[in-house]
Design goal:
- This protein has 321 residues and is an alpha/beta fold.
- The protein is 41% helix and 17% strand.
- The protein has 10 helices and 13 strands.
- Helix 1 (12-24) crosses helix 7 and helix 2 (61-70) packs parallel to helix 4 (93-116).
- The longest helix is centred in the N-terminal third of the chain and has 24 residues, at 93-116.
- 46% of the residues are buried.
- Bound molecules: nicotinamide-adenine-dinucleotide (NAD).
- Nicotinamide-adenine-dinucleotide is lined by residues 7-8, 10-14, 33-37, 39-40, 57-59, 79-81, 83, 98, 102, 128-130, 160, 183, 185-186, 192.
- Nicotinamide-adenine-dinucleotide (NAD) binds next to helix 1, strand 2, helix 4 and strand 5.
């Protein structure tokens, strides 16, 4: 199998995907293109055989074209993004630059090499996105479907929504073979500790209080990162060109319930520090994963309790506890 290009492969989900992919596709090398922002860590993929890191920006279209050409890339899995909602509130420019302009740069490079060059090579552009593009559910609303109208609330989700539309347009206008997956909140190894689960875990294990937005009753569908990686792999292998698929765990949990579970698993009761609700926050998110199940048999395999228990052990080892 040909080599694949993974953008943002030194970040949280990207690095897990690189490990997952190389563990299952020994003949497919991985070129990681990553700008190594604060969120990118080469150590997360250090020692992964068959994975090569190229430090560079997805906005550099010529660089992307040169990688596609020189490595005969036929598959791009696009993770690179600014991903932290809090940062998008204090500094949205970088989100528009990387998530919108950067995604468009990749699409331009893919079109130039795969379509305009006229080689007729089979190809796939896999765009990794978020279920936050759908906005927030009311108490009686059904889970988000792939047909739910986009209603992003934060600059982060708005920039991801913009990138999703560009991917769709490149499929419909130019015939690019592209698939988008919109996934729920992930947790697992190698996540930057500004994100909720590692932040809570580190604070709890080190005896610090837990900062909680609002009343802690906002609900998320937490997914262990390897389940996301499997969903992407299935979509690459069996997802239909031009389609969009929701990926998730199907188990909505409130912030307070997740905290209680973490306290139980760590054996540490931590003080909770409630602060005003985050600007533009979503109260409740849950995506319907029926289409991914029907088209390619996706189903999450890691229950929240098991995934969080694994995460506690990983975090303990990282902290040398
Ligand atoms: P992350 O912030 O941990 O990693 C992002 C990576 O992209 C980093 O390695 C960073 O260095 C790299 N990067 C940033 N700007 C770049 C640029 N201009 N050029 C090249 N590389 C650049 O993010 P993550 O949590 O791993 O998320 C990965 C993808 O999955 C994102 O597209 C995100 O929107 C999506 N997603 C994340 C979640 C989640 O819960 N974390 C859920 C659903 C979807």
């Amino acid at each position: 199998m040909a080599d694949i290009l993974v953008t943002g492969g030194a970040g949280f989900i990207g690095s897990n995907f690189v490990r997952y992919w190389r563990g299952r596709h020994h003949n497919s090398g991985v070129v990681v293109l990553d700008a190594l922002t604060y969120a990118g860590n080469p150590a997360s993929i250090a020692g992964v055989e068959g994975a090569e890191l190229v430090e560079g920006d997805i906005c550099d279209t010529d660089l992307v074209r040169q990688i596609i050409r020189s490595r005969d890339i036929q598959t791009i899995v696009h993770f690179a993004a600014e991903s932290h909602v809090d940062r998008s509130i204090t500094g949205p420019d970088a989100f528009v630059q990387t998530n919108v302009i950067g995604t468009h740069s990749l699409l331009r490079a893919a079109k130039a090499e795969w379509l305009d060059a006229g080689s007729g090579t089979p190809h796939r552009f896999h765009h990794v996105s978020t279920d936050e593009v759908y906005g927030s559910l009311g108490p009686e609303d059904p889970a988000f479907a792939e047909t739910t109208a986009y209603a992003p609330n934060s600059p982060y989700s708005a920039s991801k929504a913009g990138s999703d539309h560009l991917v769709r347009a490149y499929h419909h206008t130019f015939g690019l073979d592209a698939v988008t997956t919109n996934c729920s909140n992930n947790y697992g190894p190698y996540q930057f500790p500004e994100k909720l689960i590692p932040l809570f875990l580190i604070n709890a294990l080190e005896g610090r209080s837990l900062p909680i937005y609002g009343d802690g009753m906002n609900v998320r569908d937490w997914l262990y990162v390897t389940d996301h990686c499997r969903g992407i792999e299935l979509a690459l292998e069996r997802g239909r060109p031009g389609e969009v698929y929701n990926i998730g765990g199907g188990v909505p949990i409130s912030m307070n319930a997740a905290l209680a579970l973490l306290e139980e698993l760590t054996g540490r009761a931590a003080e909770r520090r409630y602060r005003p609700a985050r600007l533009g926050d979503q109260r409740h998110t849950l995506a319907d994963i029926g289409k991914a199940r029907a088209h390619f048999g996706y189903a999450p395999q890691v229950a929240p309790r098991d995934g969080l228990a694994a995460q506690v052990e990983w975090q303990r080892a990282q902290l040398g506890l």
